[in-house]
């Protein structure tokens, strides 16, 4: 029997076609504008560094919300991961920092579970409280811990886990990329970003994505977790310990957010700074929503934000070139809507495509303020486009009390 697809979810062949079309458009824009940063290995490496903390935070949110617990406190758990990861790294090295950072995030998740699952406090109120508590607590602890060493809340330089290149492949791809051939060099640059100067911690985080997909969608335990998020009373009637599964899911949620925090202080940079997360916990939550509470979708959302975040660090020329790419993609969307006879959407897409095309043709760069805001603007636009096909777990955010369903 063919497996049913959720409403609004594109088929696998359609996803592959969209990826191929996006790569061709990106390669064409790179060739036309001569903006080699669009597909360079350095750009892709920067994208990975920006995307991984968001992906880990979103993955933590997936665990929590699939069990029925809304986790607005992801930002706070990410903050706890940055501080305790830096603290452990400073004292005992990077592997210890990885463990202490995940424990710090898990403690935040445990607190959220106690307040929401056991005491039935509103999930949003609890999450906001954890964000505020984590921000103030780590600010105090950072001053207490690092002030005598460096005279501020900033940590001393930290150790990082090893980085590696894939022997032979990295050099060969770099050679292909340097030729700037259409599509071939673009693919070489993109793949090269994944196999050049890759941190061991990046591999661990990628493994967490695969492991989560397998556990949540391919094991009996994952089925029980998802049943708690869809209908906890039905799960209870089948003998599932709903409280236990919610606790496990929310604690794992905090640990994964903590892992994202460790990545920020040991890979994205090599120090801890107060306010270092910059709201990426909330972006992780946005990536989770964009991904329709699925691993593949949230990974794509994190990658999109990471790409634009990395691109804006390369200057206004790269962002200006992206305007042409956006115009072409909007034109493609308009054609697809025309084929579906969705006239209003097609007209709106055509008008937007014309606006971006004219903007690109009549300017040489974009304002600095817009460059820095590009990742956040892209996130809002994508969420607005994706909002029509979202389906959150049915019992997400609802208070559960054992026996009340009878």
From TrEMBL:
<feature type="transmembrane region" description="Helical">
    <location>
        <begin position="198"/>
        <end position="217"/>
    </location>
</feature>
<feature type="transmembrane region" description="Helical">
    <location>
        <begin position="319"/>
        <end position="339"/>
    </location>
</feature>
<feature type="transmembrane region" description="Helical">
    <location>
        <begin position="346"/>
        <end position="362"/>
    </location>
</feature>
<feature type="transmembrane region" description="Helical">
    <location>
        <begin position="128"/>
        <end position="149"/>
    </location>
</feature>
<feature type="transmembrane region" description="Helical">
    <location>
        <begin position="368"/>
        <end position="386"/>
    </location>
</feature>
<feature type="transmembrane region" description="Helical">
    <location>
        <begin position="41"/>
        <end position="62"/>
    </location>
</feature>
<feature type="transmembrane region" description="Helical">
    <location>
        <begin position="169"/>
        <end position="191"/>
    </location>
</feature>
<feature type="transmembrane region" description="Helical">
    <location>
        <begin position="69"/>
        <end position="88"/>
    </location>
</feature>
<feature type="transmembrane region" description="Helical">
    <location>
        <begin position="94"/>
        <end position="121"/>
    </location>
</feature>
<protein>
    <submittedName>
        <fullName>ABC transporter permease</fullName>
    </submittedName>
</protein>
<feature type="transmembrane region" description="Helical">
    <location>
        <begin position="281"/>
        <end position="307"/>
    </location>
</feature>
<keyword id="KW-0472">Membrane</keyword>
<dbReference type="Pfam" id="PF02653">
    <property type="entry name" value="BPD_transp_2"/>
</dbReference>
<feature type="transmembrane region" description="Helical">
    <location>
        <begin position="247"/>
        <end position="269"/>
    </location>
</feature>
<keyword id="KW-1133">Transmembrane helix</keyword>
<keyword id="KW-1003">Cell membrane</keyword>
<keyword id="KW-0812">Transmembrane</keyword>
<dbReference type="InterPro" id="IPR001851">
    <property type="entry name" value="ABC_transp_permease"/>
</dbReference>
């Amino acid at each position: 029997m063919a497996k049913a697809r959720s409403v609004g979810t594109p088929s696998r062949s359609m996803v592959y076609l969209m990826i191929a079309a996006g790569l061709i458009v990106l390669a064409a824009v790179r060739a036309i504008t001569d903006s080699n940063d669009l597909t360079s290995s350095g750009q892709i490496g920067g994208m990975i560094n920006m995307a991984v903390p968001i992906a880990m935070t979103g993955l933590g949110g997936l665990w929590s919300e699939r069990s029925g617990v809304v986790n607005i406190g992801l930002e706070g758990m990410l903050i706890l991961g940055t501080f305790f990861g830096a603290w452990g790294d400073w004292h005992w090295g990077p592997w210890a920092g990885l463990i202490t950072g995940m424990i710090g995030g898990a403690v935040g998740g445990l607190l959220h579970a106690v307040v929401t699952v056991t005491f039935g406090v509103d999930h949003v109120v609890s999450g906001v409280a954890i964000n505020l508590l984590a921000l103030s607590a780590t600010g105090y602890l950072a001053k207490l811990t690092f002030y005598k060493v460096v005279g501020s809340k900033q940590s001393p330089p930290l150790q990082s886990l090893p980085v590696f290149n894939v022997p032979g492949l990295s050099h060969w791809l770099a050679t292909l990329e340097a030729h700037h051939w259409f599509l071939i060099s673009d693919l070489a640059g993109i793949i090269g970003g994944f196999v050049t100067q890759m941190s061991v911690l990046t591999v661990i985080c990628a493994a967490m994505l695969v492991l989560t997909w397998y556990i949540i969608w391919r094991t009996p335990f994952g089925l029980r977790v998802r049943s708690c998020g869809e209908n906890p009373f039905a799960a209870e009637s089948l003998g599932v310990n709903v409280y236990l599964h919610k606790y496990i899911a929310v604690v794992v949620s905090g640990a994964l957010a903590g892992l994202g925090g460790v990545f920020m202080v040991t890979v994205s940079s090599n120090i801890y700074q107060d306010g270092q997360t910059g709201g990426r916990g909330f972006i992780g939550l946005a990536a989770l929503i964009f991904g329709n509470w699925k691993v593949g979708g949230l990974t794509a959302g994190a990658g999109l934000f990471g790409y634009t975040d990395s691109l804006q660090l390369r200057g206004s020329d790269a962002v200006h070139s992206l305007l042409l790419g956006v115009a072409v993609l909007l034109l493609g969307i308009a054609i697809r809507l025309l084929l579906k006879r969705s006239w209003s959407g097609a007209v709106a897409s055509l008008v937007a495509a014309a606006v971006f095309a004219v903007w690109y043709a009549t300017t040489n760069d974009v304002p600095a303020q817009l460059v820095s805001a590009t990742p956040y603007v892209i996130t809002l636009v994508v969420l607005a486009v994706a909002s029509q096909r979202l389906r959150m777990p049915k019992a997400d955010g609802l208070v559960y009390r054992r026996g009340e369903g009878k």
